[in-house]
């Protein structure tokens, strides 16, 4: 990575879903990791859980995982899970081009947020989807239906 690359660390879980890089964001306890677990069970790939490194390369953003948490997924009810051990080597990817940001919210405090169709990260606009979940135990959202 060139020393002039623009980077950012972001609290969120990133997966490769049907070839697309999807960053799941939300407040602590919103269900990011549980959503990731459900997506892994459906055959998608984990990039990072809890902390994602974003690096801008020209007109795209590459998401990667800090080496200290690579291959790990933390679920409050289950503890720390080794993804490769549970789902096989194909369940973990080294990186993904960021194509979509999904924000999990317990409730919409700002109705205007439904109309925010993108989010600006590292100077680029990335499509954004807001999903309202009344509780993290609610049905896992179908983030992979796009």
Outline:
With 146 residues, the chain is mainly beta. The chain has two helices and eleven strands; from the N terminus they run βββαβββββαβββ.
Describe this structure in words.
The chain has 146 residues and is mostly beta strands. It has one domain: P-loop containing nucleotide triphosphate hydrolases (Rossmann fold), CATH 3.40.50.300. The protein is 10% helix and 45% strand. The chain contains 2 helices and 11 strands. The strands form 2 sheets. Strands 1, 2, 3, 4, 5, 6, 9, 10 and 11 form a 9-stranded mixed beta sheet that branches. Strands 7-8 form a two-stranded antiparallel ribbon. Strand 5 (51-57) and strand 6 (60-64) form a beta hairpin. The longest helix is centred in the first third of the chain and has 10 residues, at 32-41. The termini are far apart. The mean pLDDT is 87.
- The number of strands is 11
Output the CATH topology: Rossmann fold
Q: What is the SS-derived class?
A: mainly beta
CATH architecture tag: 3-Layer(aba) Sandwich
Topology of this structure?
Blueprint: E1 6-11, E2 13-17, E3 20-26, H1 32-41, E4 45-48, E5 51-57, E6 60-64, E7 72-75, E8 79-82, H2 83-87, E9 95-105, E10 118-121, E11 124-132
Parallel strand pairs: 3-9, 9-11
Antiparallel strand pairs: 1-5, 2-3, 2-4, 5-6, 6-9, 7-8, 10-11
């Amino acid at each position: 990575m060139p020393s002039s690359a623009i980077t950012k660390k972001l609290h969120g879980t990133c997966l490769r879903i049907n070839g697309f890089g999807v960053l799941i964001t939300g407040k602590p306890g919103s269900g990011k990791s549980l959503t990731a677990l459900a997506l892994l069970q459906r055959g998608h790939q984990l990039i990072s859980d809890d902390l994602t490194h974003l690096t801008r390369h020209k007109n795209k953003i590459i998401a990667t995982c800090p080496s200290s948490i690579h291959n790990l997924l933390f679920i409050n009810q289950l503890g720390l899970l080794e993804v490769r051990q549970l789902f096989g080597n194909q369940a973990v990817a080294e990186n993904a081009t960021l194509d979509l940001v999904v924000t999990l919210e317990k409730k919409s405090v700002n109705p205007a947020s439904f109309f925010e169709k993108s989010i600006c990260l590292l100077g680029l606009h990335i499509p954004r989807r807001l999903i309202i979940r009344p509780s993290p135990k609610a049905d896992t959202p179908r983030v992979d239906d796009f």
